[in-house]
Amino acid sequence: MRLADADRDARAGLIFSALADPTRRQLVRLMGERPAITASSLVGELPMTRQAITKHLAGLAEAGLVRSTRAGRETQYTLTPEPLADAMAWMVSAGARWDDRLDRLERELTKPA
Amino acid sequence: MPEHPADEPALATELAPGAVRRERELPVPAEEAWTLLQDADGLSRWLADDVDLTVAPGEQGTVRDGEVERSVVVEEVDEGRHVALRWWTSDAPGDAALVDLTLEELGNRRSRLVVTEVPLRVIGMPSAVPASWSADAPGPQLLACA
What is the pLDDT of residue B144? Predict the structure, then answer.
């Protein structure tokens, strides 16, 4: 495996891990609909505390999916979807590898004995 | 493992982001297709260039595809219909993936192979590295996430 691919796969792993949680996926959806959010602005919308929301946002930031900026006493979060490309690239290449394998399997099974 | 209707995923994990799923209808009964899943000879005809693996639960081996060599552990075998593997490359042992191969009988001398590959991080499992694999720490069970 080329080093660039390994790096990309490692980043994809981080992103998949961050998105494995349904709350984080919901946060990504919400951020996709608004220019920026704060943890307290979501308190009424999500059935959890501000602290819990902040923790999930920090998890997304760690995976590079969210950028945080200070705005007075609050932290504003903005979606930065670029790293999703690494995750998509992994899925596309893993899928293509399986297509090739399944082509070979089918050929083996249809070979005249 | 319980039987799943054909239109239902064999593992709940494939709904996770990052899961890859493929289905292929095969022109032979499941019993015949199984001969290409049941051992290294069969698997090396399609899965990879070289397969050094005994297809039995807990067995470890390697699968080489061109320049890419993966370490493999057999997680589950359901004779004649199902194999689950966990594999990882030596340069990214933290990014192991779970591979699930399930044969479904379609009747009329046809069958279907359903493949899912899902990075273990997605389903919250610790990834396998060879050093952590021992009889004392047999790793997570598949059923726990199904």
Answer: 38
CB contact under 8 A, B115 and A14: no
Concatenated DSSP letters for B109-143? Answer: TEEEEEEEEEEGGGGTPPPP-GGG-SSSS----GG
CB B36 to CB A14 under 8 A?
no
Taking the C-alpha atoms of residue B27 and residue B56, their distance in angstroms, rounded to an integer, is 26
C-beta atoms surrounding B96 within 10 Å: 25
Query: Token pair 């919400």 is at which residue?
Result: A30
CA dist A96 and A111 (Å) reads 23
Record the tokens describing residue A102, joined without a space: 């399944």
Mutation for B interface: A3, A5, A17, most B CBs within 10 A: A17
Give the pLDDT of residue B122. 63
What is this structure's pTM? 0.72
Report residue B70 as tokens. Answer: 């993966």
Query: Which two tokens mark A25?
Result: 């996926």
Token couple for A43: 């308190």
What ipTM goes with this model? 0.77
